[in-house]
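Collaborator request, handled under Task 6.
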Amino acid sequence: MKKMLMTMALCGLAMAGSAQKNMSQMSAKGQDPRGGVTRTRVQQVKLVGEVSSTMIANNEIVKFTVDDIVNRITRDQDFLKNIEEASKFRFESAGQALNVLASHGWEVTSVYTTKGRQGDEIHYVMSCNVAMTPPYSPWLDPTYERGGKK
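Structure tokens returned to the collaborator:
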């Protein structure tokens, strides 16, 4: 009986030693010893807006719009204030709007043209990086109604 217990104890020590050696090799390689799963936290999220430009009676009408859900996604008050002011401002041209928004960190992601009642409408899809907040799920928010209304 003593020989059996002694043999089991030696086997246990040998296994523990080899397991520790394997763990140190894995951590030296930069792998997670718990199965290779590593998590990274995203520090910024990219929010999207749109600049639309259309000609009505030889006057260029330029509008900057951002979806209302952006107000719930980010809590950065300076960013929200800039969005609100830019949405209300009447830009003289699409170039002016793009330059002003670029100075606030917005980038043109894509451009597309549609046919409207007054002619061609040019849409510039803009994006801006803001600090990451907890994910927002409108389907879990009891105060959210379709169309962005409370």
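The cover message to the collaborator said: "Residues 44-140 form one domain. The CA atoms of residues 62 and 92 lie 7 Å apart. Please let us know whether this matches your experimental observations."
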